[in-house]
Design a protein that fits this description.
The structure is a single chain. This protein is mainly alpha-helical. Helix 2 packs across helix 5 and helix 7 crosses helix 8. It is 60% helix and 4% strand. The protein has a three-stranded antiparallel sheet with strand order 1-2-3.
Length: 141
């Protein structure tokens, strides 16, 4: 009986962070989010890049959005919603909380920026070093 109750609890339990937790992290990481949006799109929420594969100010690909929304069930929405700045920021933070929770807690801007650019292991890729330099040059931290 306890096993059935536990399984039912898991089925209805929220998955991942809440939107409130995302918003708290967004506030903490504001300078980084602003710098990334500047580098990615010049802060253009309607930007379309990578031959139509990337949308919004953060140039999010569908797979990135899916990772974020899978991790944070409260996020909801559709892929086209990444053109909304607040929603896009929440997606970015949810993605970071999925793949680099400690870096979010520590405010490790370099690691987070490089993961945004290069995927879950982006902080280990030489190809993301130049991206970080561009973000850092735009940042106010």
């Amino acid at each position: 009986m306890k096993t059935l109750a536990f399984m039912l609890m898991l089925a209805v339990a929220p998955k991942g962070p809440t939107v409130a937790a995302l918003d708290e992290a967004r506030t903490k990481l504001r300078p980084l989010l602003d710098a990334i949006a500047t580098v990615e799109s010049g802060n253009d929420n309607e930007a379309v890049g990578d031959k139509g594969k990337a949308l919004g100010s953060f140039q999010l690909w569908r797979v990135y959005w899916k990772d974020a929304t899978d991790h944070c069930a409260d996020l909801g929405g559709t892929y086209d919603d990444v053109k909304d700045r607040t929603y896009a920021e929440r997606c970015v933070v949810a993605y970071w909380l999925r793949y680099a929770k400690q870096a979010v807690a520590e405010g490790d801007h370099e690691k987070l920026a490089r993961i945004h650019n290069g995927g879950p292991k982006g902080h280990r890729k030489d190809a993301t070093v130049k991206y970080w330099a561009r973000v850092k040059a735009c940042a106010s931290f």
